[in-house]
Amino acid sequence: MNAPSPSQKSSRGWIFLLARWAAALLILGLLLHFLPIAPLRTALSRIPLTRFIAVLLIYLVALTGGITKWHTVVNAAGAKLNFAVSAQCYTSGLFGALFLPSIIGGDVARLAVGISHSPRPAAVITGNVADRFLDVAAQLTLVSLGLILLPGSLPIALQAPARHVLIAAVIIAAVLLTLLLALLRPLLRGRSRRFRRRLAQLRHAIRSVGRRPHRLLFGWLMGTCVQGTYIVLTGVLGISCGLVLPLRVWLFAWPLSKFAAVMPITQGGIGVREAALVVLLVPFGAPASQVLATGIVWEGIIIAGGLLAGLTAFLLRRAESRPQKS
Questions:
Q1: Residue 127 belongs to a domain
Q2: Rounded to whole angstroms, how far apart are CA atoms 285 and 144?
Q3: From CA 271, how far away is CA 168, in angstroms rounded?
């Protein structure tokens, strides 16, 4: 059987991309079909352009915190990237997560740039994985904080699902770690020297991260602050839409909706995130149309930020290539 050609792979990738965007539009269309349109239109019309721009600017500032976190964690693994390259990696990843034809397009773009600039590619991979784990830890921290602040006001219908999500996250992490340790030796048997050399580089990167726990702690704190900023900004947009909820409710619901958006159903989790927010916030008495309006506007912030991130990555790449041409 012949392997697919690069053109066939490319066409499949773009078909996959279009299918995921179609799934996102389908989910949003179903939400619009089952929810009343008039309250949704009213909620969307209440957001002034100046507030949207202000939230977008704060969102971009928060992204610099994400870049700093990624830069710190990756270099803790020994990647030796300067901040400009880290910014190019991070912004390429943000753009790729929305517009590249792959489930993990953001990570692929981020790693591609980082590996091409680092003398230790394994360190870039290890640091990126560690950064992802820190993101999950930050999300779980915020969900746990929300649960702590909502002991009496959490609806009974959500108590079991929330508990199950936290337990499942811990179990999955433990199972993955156990499998990694159990399969390590079998995977090494019969491998070439080149593979073992790369594995040794990966092991060295992991040890480098382990020797710098303070950087991991900084990454976790920075990630929690960045994600917390996103929650506050979403709450501000919700207030503009007429959706007034306590911050502790957003702390509980927003990270869970982001976990739901990780499922590879739609591009960038568009549609899935909004549906999850509606399901999670309606039991707290939030009008579904206002929740959807808030989610749609926040999605606009994410898409605008992704486009600006792509432009930033392009400009950084151009600025980097100029000295080489001269």
A1: yes
A2: 21
A3: 23
Q: Which residue has the tokens 């007034």?
A: 244
Q: Which residues contact 26 (CB under 8 A, 6 or more apart)?
A: 271
Number of H helices, E strands in the chain: 12, 0
Q: Specify whether the CB–CB gap between 301 and 233 falls below 8 A.
A: yes
If you search the block for the tokens 């994985």, which residue do you land on? Answer: 129
Is residue 126 within 8 Å of residue 200, measured between CB atoms? Answer: no
Cα(64)–Cα(153) distance, rounded to whole angstroms? 35
Cα–Cα distance measured from residue 138 to residue 131, given in angstroms and rounded to the nearest whole number: 10
d(CA 128, CA 270): 23
CA–CA distance, 289 with 206 (Å, rounded to integer): 47
The reply to whether 25 falls in a domain is no
Residue type, 6: P
Domain that holds residue 285: 38-325
Report if residue 33 sits inside a domain: no
Task: Report pLDDT digits (tens) over 215-265.
Answer: 888 889 999 999 999 999 999 999 999 999 999 899 988 998 888 877 777
Lowest-pLDDT range, 80-84, 309-313, 322-326? 322-326
Number of domains in the chain: 1
Supply the DSSP symbol for 287: -
User: Would you say residue 234 lies in a domain?
Assistant: yes
d(CA 300, CA 292): 12
Instruction: Kindly report the length of the chain.
Output: 326
Q: Are 123 and 225 in contact (CB under 8 A)?
A: no
pTM: 0.80
Which structure tokens are listed for 155? 């609806």
